[in-house]
From TrEMBL:
<dbReference type="InterPro" id="IPR032416">
    <property type="entry name" value="Peptidase_M24_C"/>
</dbReference>
<dbReference type="InterPro" id="IPR050422">
    <property type="entry name" value="X-Pro_aminopeptidase_P"/>
</dbReference>
<feature type="domain" description="Peptidase M24">
    <location>
        <begin position="311"/>
        <end position="526"/>
    </location>
</feature>
<keyword id="KW-0645">Protease</keyword>
<feature type="domain" description="Peptidase M24 C-terminal">
    <location>
        <begin position="538"/>
        <end position="597"/>
    </location>
</feature>
<keyword id="KW-0378">Hydrolase</keyword>
<dbReference type="Pfam" id="PF01321">
    <property type="entry name" value="Creatinase_N"/>
</dbReference>
<comment type="similarity">
    <text>Belongs to the peptidase M24B family.</text>
</comment>
<dbReference type="InterPro" id="IPR000587">
    <property type="entry name" value="Creatinase_N"/>
</dbReference>
<dbReference type="GO" id="GO:0070006">
    <property type="term" value="F:metalloaminopeptidase activity"/>
</dbReference>
<feature type="domain" description="Creatinase N-terminal">
    <location>
        <begin position="7"/>
        <end position="138"/>
    </location>
</feature>
<dbReference type="Pfam" id="PF00557">
    <property type="entry name" value="Peptidase_M24"/>
</dbReference>
<dbReference type="GO" id="GO:0046872">
    <property type="term" value="F:metal ion binding"/>
</dbReference>
<dbReference type="InterPro" id="IPR000994">
    <property type="entry name" value="Pept_M24"/>
</dbReference>
<keyword id="KW-0031">Aminopeptidase</keyword>
<dbReference type="InterPro" id="IPR029149">
    <property type="entry name" value="Creatin/AminoP/Spt16_N"/>
</dbReference>
<dbReference type="Pfam" id="PF16188">
    <property type="entry name" value="Peptidase_M24_C"/>
</dbReference>
Amino acid sequence: MSTYEARLQALREQLKADRLDGFVVPLTDEHMSEYVGSYAQRLAWLTGFQGSAGSAAVLPQEAAIFTDGRYTLQVRDQVDGQHWSYESVPQTSVADWLKEHAPNGARIGYDPWLHTNDWVVRAREALAAKGAELVAVERNPIDRVWSDKPEPSKARLVVHGDDLAGKSSAAKRQDIADWLRAEQADAAVLSALDSIAWTFNVRGQDVEHTPVALSFALVHQDGTADLFVASEKLGEDVRQHLGNGVRIHERNAFEPHLRGMRGKTVVADPERAVSAIFGALEAAGARIVTKRDPAVLPKAIKNQVEIGGHHAAQARDGAALTRFLHWLSIEAPKGSVDELSAAAKLQEFREACGDLRDTSFDTISGAGPNGAIVHYRVTEETNRAIEMDSLYLVDSGGQYPDGTTDVTRTVAIGTPTAEMRDRFTRVLKGHIAVSAALFPDGTRGSQLDTLARQFLWQAGVDYAHGTGHGVGSYLAVHEGPQRIAPVGSGQSGGDEPLRAGMILSNEPGYYKAGAYGIRIENLVLVVPRPVAGAEKDMLGFQNLTWAPIDRTLIDLALLSPQERAWVDDYHARVLEIVGPQLSGEVLEWTRAACAPL
């Protein structure tokens, strides 16, 4: 099937054969991952949507695709509006849409390996109002009609040594065991791939941009564990690393194993464990405790070895980005650079800096109006030349064994307009406000989000994404539970208290549809900030990312003396950290780019 219209029709015919009146298609896998392997890209196969978050619902006569504000423009470019209606999250939801559009008495199918229990409960309640039924399918109907569906990756796991992890797998499992005893539970389900990679100090190549391996795990109260992973993916080095305390099973043995846990008290994370896991435990008669995966918080709070690794990775990555910005300043005005060639050149510079394993996400290389598409992904069809007197936005990152990077720079090619400089400076002021924030221990990211938006609000504008997300240690570039985002933003909010050792992005932006986009992003580390006479423990942020910010886009009249000092201090640190890795023309350009305002 070469067209998305034909694929939609084939799915409808399969649903009819399965006696279903509709089906829900999320963009995730059996592990509730954000980025998924090619075998699980069902939403992209069906609709053409290439974003990293979304879902769809298909009925006999109509279909809808659901995305948040980051993808408002992208979804309209990639998904045919003749066959799909565009729905915005969180203003509406799949369950709400089905409640309104599903026929009375309809049977709506869902794959229990791709949804959480909470979603199933909400959808079932919504459909009940129409006398409709939510039906779990034994085999996903898309898989039945996707004839050339890729197989899951067979790549081998690799050991992530204690010199990089900072703590042994045995010690991490013992911490989980101690927690289980306190919770009076026998075992915890680990189904999130980054939790498994972190707990067992292994990494993989099964998901693009995220070094994880397709697997499930159970950690027990005695500190031992069961790891469910295809045996062909394990070399002798990994088996020795895991040791006798980890029993190995085939991945497809996970569900039968759960069904054998009769009488056990098992912790399962309602956000990360899919409905099928809860169903198997319920079928076994196990007592289920719904609590957060015990690896999530310790994984988010980096130890000193991980923090040191991040500093080293960020310094190398900053040098690569700085070389790229120098190259762009010379080549772009010649008119010979487009989005694809720019992204490829940045990749070259990253590869040359040493030990790059992957990009941490698809590079967002947006020229002019494409920069206004928040999660834009350039293709041969959308590729634009970088033109004079325009803005170019590049959001990119690398996966290195000692750290994960994520950085955005917006640069002027030629002469920017007064409006561009105004908006850029307001974004910069918000970025500085977050970077310089001082806040009590226990503050939530949602409480800091307004700091980034206040200067844009003064001009009557805003941006439709969170201000910051957590970042892993050679793991997921989007890592929970911490965020800087409005409560109820549809992107998990920012309700987690920030703790020293957490890493987040700081990335306010502004997007003018059809014209240009602006974003300034650094990664920051939460650190203690002693305050004389303080009655509370105070925290702040330490910058991790080092690369020049385009001075030609700054309207100095809008900056306070303190903000000017922040920019000058930041650029002095760029020269201190990145400068020794540069030489010749690149170093001279960097000195000019980092000159005091």
